[in-house]
Amino acid sequence: MYVLYIFSMETHDPDLIDLLIAERAGDQARMVWRAREARRAAGVAWSGMAPPPCPPPRTEPERLTAARAKLAARRRWRGSAQGRFVGAVAQVQAAARDLHAGGERAREAAARGFQDERETCEAIARDLRRQTLGLIAGVRAARRAVRDLS
């Protein structure tokens, strides 16, 4: 892609590249919307009802500057107590989903024949333990983030 080619020499930060792609997509969507609004107002229109003139499209350096500013703001937020708390809660939610799915797999294996599925059940039990540890780590991280507010 054009954006990736121009700026891949400058940075290898995937978050920045994703934001830069989003900036280009946003600019494109705004241009399409403005063109649609201009077509809608073409012909007979009341005075003052036409859309404002379309500003020139942003340059790649302007988009890069906007993407960098958004990335810096995102990283500041992620490093804040609130950002760390929300990240930890997301970790807990993912672990809970994995635990639920693992529990379902365990019940299905046991229903097929507990003796015959012993190795499968042991593997699932190990996975459940690992997922539980991830959940506990997420809860601890969330509690630390809340404590950091005081």
Q: Could you explain how this protein is built, in words?
A:
The protein is 79% helix and 0% strand. The protein is an all-alpha fold. The protein has 2 domains: 2-76, no CATH class; 81-147. The model has no long low-confidence stretch (mean pLDDT 87).
Summary keywords:
150 residues; mainly alpha; 2 domains; 5 helices; elongated
What layout of secondary structure does this protein have?
Blueprint: H1 2-8, H2 14-41, H3 60-79, H4 81-113, H5 118-147
Give a quick rundown of the structure.
The chain has 150 residues and is an all-alpha fold. 79% of the residues lie in helices and 0% in strands. The chain folds into 2 domains: 75 residues, no CATH class; 67 residues.
Overall helicity: over 70%
- Give the radius of gyration: 26 Å
Query: Spans with pLDDT under 50 lasting ≥5 residues?
Result: none
What general outline do the C-alpha atoms trace?
elongated
Count of helix runs: 5
User: Which range does the strand content fall in?
Assistant: under 5%
Total strand segments = 0
Judged by helices, strands and strand pairing, the structural class is mainly alpha
Q: What is the average of the pLDDT values?
A: 87
SSE arrangement, N to C: HHHHH
In whole angstroms, how far apart are the ends? 47 Å
Number of domains: 2
Summarize the biggest pleated sheet: none
